[in-house]
Amino acid sequence: MSAVTDAAPRATRPHPLGQSVRDSLVVAKRNLIRMSRIPEMIIFGLFQPIMFVVLFSYVFGGSMNIGGSTDSGVYREFLMAGIFAQTVTFATAGAGAGIAEDMHKGLVDRFRSLPMARGAVLTGRTLADLVQTALTLLVLAIVALLVGWRTHTNVGEVLGAFGLLLLMGYAFTWIGALIGLSVRTPEAATSGGLVWLFPVTFVSNAFVDSSRMTPWLRHIAEWNPFSATVQACRELFGNPGVSNSGAWPMEHPVWASLIYSALIIVIFRTLAVRKYRSATA
Amino acid sequence: MPGAIYAEGLVKTFGDVRALDGVDLDVPEGTVLGLLGPNGAGKTTTVRCLTTLLRPDSGRAVVAGIDVLDHPDQVRRSIGLSGQFAAVDEYLTGRENLQMVGQLYQMSAKAAKARAGELLDQFNLADAADRPAKTYSGGMRRRLDLAAALVVSPPVMFMDEPTTGLDPRNRQQLWEVIKQLVSGGTTLLLTTQYLEEADHLAHDIAVVDHGRVIARGTSDQLKARTGGERVEVVVHEREHMAAAAEVLAGFGKGDTTVEEHTRKLTVPVTGGAKLLAEVIRELDVRGIEIDDIGLRRPTLDDVFLSLTGHAAEVKDADEDDEGGTSADTRGRKRKKESVK
């Protein structure tokens, strides 16, 4: 004990950007270690999308009309881009709950009393969630292949589609981070993080052909940022059901997906970091 | 020259609640200030303002010579904070927790690792170093939390109720750790609702209530303010209380406090044990049967009572049912109610 106050290394002052990256990685590592010690979370995270694949493709498959085809095999290929996209958005709830829990347990107080980069706690969390999302997508893609999903383009385009999916998932975790910082309990963050995802993912082209919707609903679906990514993935996978709509995000889905994701990151990161600075448990 | 921790007129409101109502503090370098008060007095809010977690509405604070409001980042380099709820990641091991904190204090990964090892040894956590913190006992978690606050050996430390919820043995252990720490010259601000703890650890005590420092001084100075010793009698029969009060009035140097429901009478006295013997004789002569009698020296509890009109160790739940507050408080509350 006598050495407690002896010459321990002093805090130094590093370059702001380098510090930000380094601190974010330290926090990301912490969150990944955490996730690896709670494997149930990852397993349940996988369970839901797999269940959706099976339910949608077998239960709805036979009664869907995609581009004039009612073949359930066609629907299955159509469906996968939607399920992938929905799966990455569900990472939002995990990020929100994780951050709310850190606040609740006093860890955010600890972090905020340390001379670390301001956004690093949140960036670290969202990066860790990105890793988890990537793993989930990988497993889901294997399941999709098993139930008959195929791509009909080249490797570059397929990887590009997964890139867009991960980018959107990353963008959405910032919305989750803001929700997590805004609610009082981790439980509220979980339900608050999920509830808005249902309209966002269902009022879209993910599970049905949006051109068959009532006009006002169709417009919402076609301009929904989520739909842009789904449309882009269908295009890049060469899967059926690519919308012929003249709406700009449907005509240029890759650009639309990139722009939407970038906008969401900029807006929600700014809001979340600002909220973090004044956060009180 | 202001001390290592200095605050002037700190005000913080949350909606209608004035959590801090002009807190002034001055803690000389190398000393320990005990911030003493019940729940909701403003202790934690004060710590949060001084540690950059909360921005006060008005007032000024200087920690380790740095203005807290102007240069919060610099302040963070010079302070260690140990919270009321042990803020460690329970899924990380003790070692991983300390390493992470070290790195976030901007130490290199290697230096953070070495420092984590040192601290684990010093805090008797070496055996549990590679177990997740959620397997730790309450005392071990507090020690880990304290170790995390000491990673860079900050010159100024804040501990918010470091022993709340610990059993007596663990509390004693933690006190020893804190004593050794401050003997090394660290300036410490410690909040507590345990009077014994402030008495034990702090050079100076500031009593806080309703967001204000209502008294300040050494433990002895505060006790002196409450007056000297007193005789406390518990009579056996309720009917004897009036007669006993009469006896005590004859010996006392002030008003006799009477608590009907506990049959307890208290009076300030001078004269010590000799006087106590006389009181017993006199009660005996008058045939007043007693359950208990004693000479009591003032505790910080009495100090708190005389300053605030309510006991210090008031817990939230007890405020509602009045069940666990001290007898004095209950007596006073009842009296107030009956006046209404």
TrEMBL record, chain A:
TM helices/strands, residue ranges: 38-58, 78-100, 121-147, 159-181, 188-208, 254-272
This protein's GO CC annotations: ATP-binding cassette (ABC) transporter complex
Gene Ontology biological-process annotations: response to antibiotic
Swiss-Prot/TrEMBL keywords: Antibiotic resistance, Cell membrane, Membrane, Transmembrane, Transmembrane helix, Transport
Superkingdom of origin organism: Bacteria
GO molecular function, one term: ABC-type transporter activity
Membrane topology: Multi-pass membrane protein
Localisation: Cell membrane
Domain ABC transmembrane type-2 as annotated: residue spans: 40-279
Principal location listed in the UniProt entry: membrane
Matching InterPro entries: ABC2_TM, ABC2_TM_bact-type, ABC_2_transport, T7SS_ABC-Transporter
PANTHER family for the chain: DOXORUBICIN RESISTANCE ABC TRANSPORTER PERMEASE PROTEIN DRRB, TRANSPORT PERMEASE YVFS-RELATED
Similarity field: Belongs to the ABC-2 integral membrane protein family.
Protein name as catalogued: Transport permease protein
Lineage, uppermost ranks: Bacteria, Bacillati, Actinomycetota, Actinomycetes, Kitasatosporales
Automatic annotation (TrEMBL), chain B:
Bias kind Basic residues: ranges: 331-340
Compartments, as annotated in UniProt: Cell membrane
SUPFAM superfamilies in the cross-refs: P-loop containing nucleoside triphosphate hydrolases
EC number from the UniProt entry: 7.6.2.2
Entry keyword set: Antibiotic resistance, ATP-binding, Cell membrane, Membrane, Nucleotide-binding, Translocase, Transport
Residue segments, region Disordered: 311-340
Family annotation (InterPro entries): AAA+_ATPase, ABC_transporter-like_ATP-bd, ABC_transporter-like_CS, ABC_transporter_ATP-binding, DrrA, DrrA1/2-like_C, P-loop_NTPase
Boundaries of every ABC transporter domain copy: 5-235
Membrane topology: Peripheral membrane protein
Membrane-spanning ranges: none
Main location as per UniProt: membrane
GO BP field: daunorubicin transport; doxorubicin transport; response to antibiotic
GO CC, alphabetical: plasma membrane
GO molecular function terms listed in the Swiss-Prot or TrEMBL record: ABC-type xenobiotic transporter activity; ATP binding; ATP hydrolysis activity
PROSITE patterns: ABC_TRANSPORTER_1, ABC_TRANSPORTER_2
Family (UniProt): Belongs to the ABC transporter superfamily. Drug exporter-1 (DrugE1) (TC 3.A.1.105) family.
Classification via NCBIfam families: drrA
Protein known as: ABC-type xenobiotic transporter
Natural source organism: Streptomyces spinoverrucosus
Highest classification ranks of the organism: Bacteria, Bacillati, Actinomycetota, Actinomycetes, Kitasatosporales
